[in-house]
Design brief:
This protein has 2 helices and no strands. By secondary structure, the protein is mostly helical. The longest helix is centred in the first third of the chain and has 20 residues. It is elongated and about 115 Å long. It starts with a helix and ends in a 47-residue tail after the last helix.
Length: 85
């Protein structure tokens, strides 16, 4: 049992020492990869529509669009009174 613990400790000490002493990995970049990385990222503009509740105001520097007015409702009521046709 002591031998297993000693070997595990030796292996972990070796791994830690190698990680500290070893040089960092070199990143191999070619001209094609550098050209792709140099291009600016495309900007995606997000438009959010929010419906304000009565009494609320829009935040400063925002564009406000009026909601389209609803078409008026036309209600036709036909009744038949008794005795009249």
């Amino acid at each position: 049992m002591r031998l297993v613990v000693a070997l595990a400790g030796l292996a972990s000490a070796s791994a830690i020492g190698t990680a500290i002493v070893a040089p960092p990995p070199s990143f191999n970049t070619s001209a094609g990869q550098v050209a792709v990385a140099a291009q600016p990222a495309q900007v995606v503009h997000v438009v959010r529509y929010v419906q304000l509740q009565p009494g609320q105001t829009a935040p400063p520097n925002t564009t406000v669009q009026q909601a389209p007015a609803q078409a008026p409702r036309v209600v036709t009521i036909t009744t038949r009174q008794s005795g009249v046709k």
